[in-house]
Amino acid sequence: MQLSDTRIKTELRGAPIRVGDRTLHPAARLDGWVLPLAFDRPSSQWRAHLGWLRVTPVAVEIHEPDGQISILTIYDPGRARLRLMFLTAFLITGAFWLWFSTSRYNQ
Prior knowledge:
By secondary structure, the chain is α+β, with helices and mostly antiparallel strands. Helices cover 24% and strands 50% of the residues. It folds into two domains: 74 residues, no CATH class; 32 residues.
């Protein structure tokens, strides 16, 4: 039996929300992986799946009473800062590793 992992990447649309004369349609992105596991034993067959999912709000679509549609994009500055911190830590660690591995300190 051939098992392979499955990448999940889709956009979700929420139920419309009425606010006065306007209608709001929330949108989110669903990202993740599903990793199937299978163990075939002579007495029984056991299967399981490991998974990871993340739901991230990305936008709100606003429908005006006159028919005009505007999209309000949701930006998460905290997530961008966290990525920058990890990148900075990775680069600093790599620079120190390179410096220590090539310096006279090891001689």
